[in-house]
Amino acid sequence: METKAVEPKTVSAHRDPEQRESMNGAESLVKTLLASGVDTCFANPGTSEMHFVAALDRIPGMHCVLGLFEGVVTGAADGYARMAGKPAATLLHCGPGLANGLANLHNARRAQTPIVNIIGDQATYHRPFDAPLTADTEGWARPVSVWTRTATTAATVGADAAAAVQAAMGAPGGVASLILPSDVCWDEGGQVAAPLPALPVPQVSPDAIQHAARVLRSGEPTLIVLAGSALLEGALTNAHRIAAATDARLITPMSNARVTRGRGRLAVDRIPYSGDIARGKLAGIRHVVLVGAPPPVTFFAYPGKSPRPYPEDATIHVLARPEQDLGDALARLADEVGARGAELPATASLTLTPASGAITSEAVAQSLSALLPEQAVVVEESVSFGRAFYPGTVHAAPHDWLQLTGGAIGEGLPLATGAAIAAPGRRVVSLQADGSGMYTLQSLWTMAREKLDVTIVLLANRKYAILLGELAGVGANPGKTALDMLDIGNPDLDWVKLANGMGVEGARATDMDTFNDLFRMANQRKGPFLIELVI
After folding, report:
1. Pairing of strands 188-190, 23-24
2. For the Thiamine pyrophosphate enzyme N-terminal TPP-binding domain, which residue ranges apply (predicted)?
């Protein structure tokens, strides 16, 4: 069947929009985003997005942050929104650019992070010719998105953008993907859309509150699993009051988007990564009450072992779903069980000193506790060597703790990048394993370019240590070929030189005293600094 070409419309992309009778679609997009409160854009653009880039140049107000790889762009947008409480925009180049960023959009989906994910695409009349970058962009975007739309005309781009912001911000938050064919961006007739009202946050029903109260009053061992906004300071206080009044246990999933913690705040434990350890920890539990969390599950399946970290005969109860008002639910439950006056656990006031001598996970946690700056943002991507970091820093200065939530490694450095842009004046400390750091080391360049206040503690064991444990967990008897696949030495990575090549100063530490000196210095200076901690 013969396909006839459709001639593109001829427009001028370089005239001042204020001197035209109308604006193009890209200009209406930028103006609508700004009107809706989206003023930061993490970008790795290509040809199809040039009219968007030109509009960003002509219309003031958007902070544009360049990432050298789309995984940096999407991960930084995740970190930004977790700390800013509002979405950033991304700008990705067609389907393959989206594909490069999908892993960290997966993490953002698991974190329930609001992101306005803008993806360029082939001109509408160009798609039938199956040019090299033509892809099922919408099909690739849909699994990581709460909302997906392809703009069809310049006149509707503004309304599409306003709808994307509303969808991204709808509780509990998510990725809203807007696909923009290039002719929709350059065509005239764009219209700025007014911001759409916030979608209402559903309240938990009285029946759910009363049911959870009955479970807690039963006297049977009960576990309350907290996630999402239930891990912010006010909600966490009510959760502790409920636990104190009912003898329930509090816990969080192993990985969380953001936890407020540190000196003067109430601590909450996490479900361990190891299924065996988790099952031992949760033995005897009869009831599991979920507050914004899914039923707990082990990271992976293992031969002959349960995927549940809690007892098989335990009963699951839902107090609040992720999209409901978690803080309100906990406050009402505290009233229902008479917990508002319950005595909270005491928060110890300790004199903390940094560790000396050999580098161990426990020693690093001790030094972090003693030296972490006030109101720091800690981004952790370290499971194996970092086993002591979270439990060992409960008495550190008040801080927020961020993790990659979807298990797709390589988000730690981008998360730190976005968090630093969202929280100027707060030091970001990135606890980053070397293997996963190599996925997105281009983040260091963006940190240098933006002069971000980030201290990167690069944990250099030169192996995929977590996989060595997994190999044993599945009962394998590895030989040289298998072990070589998990070794990232030979040659050894030189992270100080890698950082220098990206414009970031760095130094190496092989003992705790050197680390302490470098960590103090890095946190007192402006801009990024990398400490390669040889472990």
Report:
1. antiparallel
2. 23-128
Q: Is it true that 17-190 and 206-336 share their CATH fold?
A: yes
CATH number for the domain whose boundaries are 17-190: 3.40.50.970
Task: Give residue 382's pLDDT.
Answer: 92
Amino acid at 96: P
Joined tokens for residue 193: 């859309």
* CATH number at 361-534: 3.40.50.970
> Count of CB atoms within 10 A of residue 508's CB?
17
Q: How many CB atoms lie within 10 A of CB 358?
A: 10
d(CA 95, CA 169): 24
Collapsed DSSP state (helix, strand, coil) of residue 482 = helix
Q: Are 17 and 57 in contact (CB under 8 A)?
A: no
Residue 443: how many CB atoms within 10 A of its CB?
A: 36
Helix (H, G, I), strand (E, B) or coil at 203: coil
For strand 175-181 and strand 454-460, is the pairing parallel, antiparallel, or unpaired? unpaired
Distance from the first to the final alpha carbon of the chain: 64
CA distance 26 to 389: 45
Percent of the chain that is helix, strand, coil (3-state, to 5): 40, 20, 40
Which stretches within 59-181 are classed as H helix?
70-84, 94-111, 137-141, 154-169
Place of tokens 């006031």: 349
**Helices 412-422 + 443-450 axis angle, to 10:** 20
Question: Domains of the chain: which residue ranges?
Answer: 17-190, 206-336, 361-534
Which of 207, 239, 203 lies closest to 223, judged by CA? 239
**Identity of the amino acid at 75:** G
**193-223 pLDDT, tens per residue?**
999 999 999 999 999 999 999 999 999 999 9
Q: Is the pLDDT of residue 498 over 70?
A: yes
Could you identify the residue written with the tokens 């001598």? 357
DSSP-derived secondary structure letter, 231: G
Q: SS3 of 179, please?
A: strand
Contacts of residue 181, defined as CB under 8 A and 6 or more positions apart, other chains included, come to: 48, 121, 122, 123, 124, 127, 150, 151, 152
State pLDDT tens for residues 328-383.
Answer: 999 999 999 999 888 887 776 788 999 999 999 999 999 999 999 999 999 999 98
DSSP state of 143: G
